Structures
1.
Amino acid sequence: METLITTPPPPEEKEYNILNLGPTHPATHGIFQNVLKMDGEYIVEGEPTIGYIHRAFEKLAEHRPYYQVTPITDRLNYCSSPINNLGWHMTVEKLLGVKTPKRVDYLRVIIMELARITDHLICNSVIGVDTGALTGFVYVFQQREHVYEIYEEICGSRLTTNIGRIGGFERDFDDNLLARIRKFITEFPAVWKEFESLLMRNRIFMDRTIGVGGISAERALSYGFTGPNLRAAGVDYDVRVMEPYSSYEDFNFDIPIGQSGDVYDRFCVRGEEVWQSLSIIQQALDKLEKMPKGEYYAPVPEFYLPPKQDVYTKMEALIWHFKIVMGEVEVPKGEVYHAVEGGNGELGFYLISDGGRQPYRLHFRRPCFIYYQAFPEMIRGTMLSDAILTMSSMNVIAGELDA
Amino acid sequence: MSAQAINAEYVTEKLQARFGDQLSNLDSPYGLLSMNVPRESVIGIIKWLKEDPELQFMFLTDLCGVHFPEQKGQELGVVYHLHSLVHNFRLRIRTFFPETDPQVDTATTLFEAANWMERETFDFFGIRFKGHPDLRRILNMDDMTYHPLLKQYPLEDATRTDKEDKYFGR
């Protein structure tokens, strides 16, 4: 195939420049260091260094009761922390054998899809920023704010949400909140459409992204890619469909896939996933309408922290509260692997319980830790500005990378 | 390829026919087929599972270390989670070995993804992966002298001298 730009073969004993990109370079959107060997504007070899914000989550988790591990999971992929929280709750529920009511499942689906929307809109708008289009980024961030207001109403916090509990939610969703979600999904499509029309068929954007940072399906699978990055390479693997959790099997949605696994395909896959998420939220809201209100947790008093007002006024609730907090509840021994479809791939929790109040061992399968190792291969031979784009389109989140 | 989806009994049968004497602790906790294998054959078994035209366990989902100080002679272990995407079937393979000789063959020859996962396991547990192309620490700093996820180390860094209990109300 004829290409317009060709890299000249390096003559013998050529001298290369070493460029230290990061760890605090503004173009890397997080703390990533890459030492690049440069031949002029071209990258000969790159070597990432990670671990700058390592916080020993796996060790911390071994010293915390199950319900106190949730705030740790917030800080993995902090662009979509509700998915991490709920994934952790579901892992513990799987260990305990708790079956959550359908209504809880649907409420969880709504939250997880809202989180997916915010995750994808950050990633896609940042690709825009790196190609020189700041406007779209600022524009969609206003919408992210509306989602954060929804989180705030559910759990009181915005970025690191600590949403829900083992067994369900701490309080019911009231009409005001459901109306807010409805308002968001009616207003957001126009914004997302406008954002996509800004970039999707934009000649400059297409020239910058098509054929840049591509990876084949075979290499992507070997590198352990999951999520939108794998789907952009043409493999239709989605945990929501392959192993439905939280009643995802009740919903109709499509899995968008790309072909070449390049930056443009990843952008398009995420863009389409946002539309699918909106459709899932709409379906969930419709299903909820037909259900009686008030059921927002599973009837498992031995694991679900009772409401505070009951703890102060009812003996039963006080006893359970004491037992849960002091760790006097029997937890089954066993090992569990539970995976959820996070914002950027399969987020897995491998939990070993020895019957104690804390996990004996907890390992997080962090999708971007696994696929970021393909970065040197993906940027080899490309130009520096393409490497920046490749990185932002891979949706590597420093918190999740470094655990 | 078989028309029907493979299940735990079928995979067990197939594995037992091939590696019968090497598999132990065959079980399906929470619906995930798991087994222990000796460390000498773990990579061989994974390679066979990956290359078998029917099973096609060609996706390494996860690789991590575990430490059980009470299992004498079998203290350290590596747990592999494999996934056959074609059949949507997961498999867990564990291998245990003594603390005094923490070595196991590398899986990087089969999966590129194993590279950093093994570096992480080395970093936290001190398990050496024979044949790994670049076995260095990855998340902790390079001059750290111990492997922090081993159970003998407390949560707080015992080597620090700048933290006095009286400042922390203890």
2.
Amino acid sequence: MSKNRFRVLALLLALSFVLSGCGSAAKIEVSPDGDMSSIFEPSSESFATENMDNYVLAAKNDKFSLYYEEDGLTICIKDNLSGNVLSSCAAPDESFSDAWKNFVNSGIVVEYYSGTSTTVSRVNMYNGLCDKKIYLTKNGFTADINFKKIKLMFKINVALNGNSIDVKIPSSSVIEGTTNFKLAAIWVFPFLGYTKSGDTSGYMFIPDGCGALIDLKNNNGKYSQPFKASVYGNDYGIVENTNPAQKFEDEIYTMGDTARISAPIFGICHTDREIGLLGVIESGDYNSEIYAYPNGAITDYNWITNRYVYRQTYLYPTSQTSGITSVQKDRATFDILVHYLLVTGENASYVGLAKEYRNYLTDRGVLNNKSDNKSVKLDFFAGDIEKAVIGTRFVSMTTVNQIDEILKKLSKSNVKKALISYKGWQKNGIYGNITNTMFQNGIGSFGDFENLAKKYTDSSFMLYADLINSYSENDNCLYRYNGKLYSFESGLKLHQQQYKSPNLDEKFLKNFSNGSVGLSVDGVTNEIYSSMVNNKKDLLTRKRFAKNINDSLKTLTNNTVYSSPNAYLWKNTKNFSDFPLYGSDYKFTSKEIPFFSIVLKGSIPLYSEYINFKADSREYLLLMIESGVNPSFLLTYENPSKLIYSDSDSLYTSEFKNYSSMIKEYYEIFEKLNKSVGNSFIDSYEKIGKISKVKYSNGALVYVNFGDEVTEIDGNKIESYSYLIKAGGKS
Amino acid sequence: MKGDKAMKKVISIISIVLVLSLSHFVPTYADSAYKTVTVNKDGNYIETQTAYKPVKTIEKIGNELLSAPSDMVIRNNKLYIADTGNKRIIVSSLSGDIITVFGNEKLKKPTGVFVKNNGQIMVADCDNKAVFTFDENGNEISKITKPSEPLYGKKQDFVPVKVSADNKDNIYVVCKGNGNGVVQISEKTSEFLGYFGANNVSMSLWDRFFDAIFTDEQKSQLKQTTPASISNVAIDKKGIVYTMTDIKTDNVIRKLNMSGNDILNTNISFSNPADLCVGSIGNIYAVTTNGYILEYNSEGDLLFAFGGFDDGSQRIGLFSSISSIATDNSGKLYVLDDTSCQIQIFEPTEFTNNVHTALDLYSQGKYLESKKPWEKVLLMNNLFDYAHKGMAEAYYMEGNYEKAMEEFRLSNNQYSFSEAFTEYRNQKIRDNITLVLIAFIAVIGSIFALLKIKKKKKVLAEGTKEITRSNLKNQLLFIFDMPKNPFDANYGIKRENKVSTISATILYLLFVVIYIIDKYCRGYIFSGVTTGQFYVIKDIAVVIGIMALFILCHYLVCSITEGEASLKNIYCAVIYSLMPYIILRPFVIVLTHVLTVNEIFLINILNFLIYVGCAILLVIMINQQNNYKVGETVKCIFWTLFSIIVAIAVLFILYVMAKQTVGFVSEIWNEVTYNVKK
């Protein structure tokens, strides 16, 4: 025994002498716990890719091998079965600018603010005077990084666990040695999974709206700008909204907003080499920005990654038109923890990535199989205020009794089970302040609404509340990082818009924990900002904000609907409304895919955006059937032309009598779909020409024909602009 | 501490207003990068559902990339593009497959292209200063250079930028820098037929004034008041010529008849015009250089506007700059972006197709047939006001005047509402003729009765000769004495205490109330305010402010010029002199509800009586209260008006200065607190 040990130690000593003689700044040591099984002989396991010769094995399991190299600290992942590789090291080109030259072959790039400057500078592994101490661990390696140029130290841990590469940089390990250089952001393995120009076929996946793909083919320099978006939206509590919102003829805003990134994920698939990865940010998601560079944007490479932001610049306003731009003094304290989920074989596709993400969420208990899929969601609009000769007057559009009348008519047409929500019930209508459950005079009372809920037991009744926007003067408003109130021009005639402080009123929420009426929550489910609290002394981070919201909303025991919730709320989401079926229509995306339906369908009941305002109702119906998303209508009893003098004048169609037949038609379609599909997951999704074929885990099949010709597939004939639903169990 | 808090509150109130458009209520982000707007009845832009959605982007024709292409036209399902940067013409299929390329040797800078009925292709080449005609294979057939006719103008250069031809193949050439209009050239003889459709010069009052007094030499040194030049021309299948100017004027697009007059009902005006084309139902499409696409109906009303400038977000439907637009038989729009060198194809949505169907029938005068399509449009969008106009015409034609009135009101058409109201009123009178006659007789009878009673009362009063005490009721009734004999009435105010400040104040309040009611509660036909917009406080403040200003200034002027009036006298006398307004205005308000446009003369007469009456009484008041001679009265009036203007100017300057000071102080305060916080 001791002889063996002696031999091994001697070998180690020899190794260390040899390698230290190389004169490089890197040192390889055994991890402090001295686990013998982690010692590999480098000579037999070195690996070379086209750009890097000296990859060293760090960990291996039956599926994948993880390699790293010390110069740029880049990593490389090999699929053991096929030998295909995902690398994070590209070849630097002399023609690149300094900021980019060694960006492409560095594993870690740090951005910092120097002195009082408000623009970031970059250092990478080659020009940052970087000292690295790399220890091998049981399933990967740990590196102590010291950027001597900017006096920044931190520790990074990379581990191979099953089919996922986990990368961690704990906040406690980040030490800034001087106040002269302020850490701005860190890029971790930005080029992981990159391809060059059109060499590999495949696509990058961005969580834009419903999900979009950027093809890896050669673009001939068409696209010069990358895709960039902050996870969960920009933090307007700190940064300014610099998008110049365009006005047509200086009078009306005409730009549509881009879709929000609601889940901290991104991915890339090399479809010809059957390997891909999905990056899931577990910690650091509130501070991440996702970047996707198609070839032609700065370099010839296609790459997708995220950037962790520690400090941002903010504007301290000194007058209406000018201010002082400065950098945040304290850096954000968050751990970086990202999982790169690897897919191979036939799973190296966006469907495979979606299923991986679904498994990831299920393993963490986020998706519990919930039932109660209602085939239609009806939102009733109570009313809004308009100017009267003196003061304002309420325009009633739907009273509680009128809801009763409408529901009676609907149940005569067999529309019995619906998700019902009442909007604008509070005093002064939809833009009024919500402090308790007092209804506006003249439309009914909370008690009346509860009686309605008890009468129609098959349906689920909720009150709608936007808990973050305040449209009237309110002491309880959100203060931004620069100490100013967050109020802005909302485009509304009679109201100003501000954000409420992020503490939900517990008393108000208690009303929805007993009785039969639930709460349909908007605002706080999809908008998240930093704010100054405690007399503007402490910064309430977005992470804390999210936790507070989650904790408060968890206490609601009645049924709830969350409007377009971000991923951190999915665990408690009982119903998901305003589900996106489109992306943002970027020029560089080649396809929009129902990624999130594949992830969420079967676990959370999904409801669409309002059908009233879609210009092509037929196409939207087909998209809903394809994704398994139930229809949602906004209804009023009265004609919406009564609202033209109020702030709800953009509600151009909602009268119930115009929609009663459409509701019946859609209800029948989705009852059939929900019966056939039940609570099963989407197993596979294929697009064959203009036909979509969706297969569920219980065997149900849904075909949707988006084309204008009758098509035959799998022995079934599908009409143009139509669909076919086959229940499970049958072939 | 408290002051600090208050200061902080003040500062936080003076916070930065972020310009952010978030309509949380109606989520619109998912469908497209751009919103579609239309014009509502009040002339404001409102959002509507997507009218055109992008279906395809043509990035290159076959393998050819475009370079700064400046014109495009569609004929016989083929796309003809003036590929200016590459000095050639490209002919392509509607889906981007290349058919032919020509012109490389001959063309220097082709900026305009057009295809005649016989398939020949005309190209305007501004660097060659010629219009070429090619056959389908690209062989040159003919070349038109500067016309030699003296009518053209010897010094006038010939720089063709756009070209078009009508059904008779007369050629229309738009020349750069030629403000005389479009150059018309005969197809057969190639001779210059004349200029067509020059824009009017609009001279402001100042321009006319200077034009009158300056010499020719001075005028030649000033900026030339030349008409805006025509930058583009389009001809529809009926042969009507449409011209477009290069800058924003009141009539950017004009639809010209044979004599060159604009026959559009509504003026088309927008910024940054780039190109135009005409659709199959006569609707006009226009594009702006900053990325917007507009659709007007054949009368010039804006139907839809959408698009936008691509600020780097690279979303479909946004443009770097647009140079041309064309439309095919199926209603698809082809938009040419000359910076990104791509053609974006849009397709009309279900909603737009319904609108076009209805418009087509409506513009042909088939109002009744257009009713059903308009109903379909309204189903999809209750607030599409143009549909209400269509429905109104249909109802009017049907004879359903009550509904027609309602719809005309919803589309804000006062004149047509008046016509419908006339019919409706006539109908109602005919239906209830007996009631009307009885009412008429009753009214006449009661007037006679009242007069008789008054006569009796007068006789009685003379008999008893009661000493009438100066109580409030009498003071208020004194207002009726004013018109009977203003001189005596003024004397009564001045010396006999026939009125008091209380009665005057009551009458002032009455004046303000009548003013507000008059402004907001007039009948719809004569209403001057936008329904639903109330600015009552502002109006009250303005009325009271003007009257106060007048009284004060007048008093100041009087006291300087040795007038005898005291402030109290002026205060009382002014409102009594405005008696015609107080008595007669309510009648006007009632009349606006029952009269139509044809009977406007009645209202005008009453208004005339009111204004002239007030003016006369005021002048008499000034004269009598101050005991002026005629000349002094005139001087006093002039000085009063002058001092009112000066007072307004002074107040305005004070306001601006105060605002600047407050802004300056708060800016300094913010800087100080920021540095302290750091």
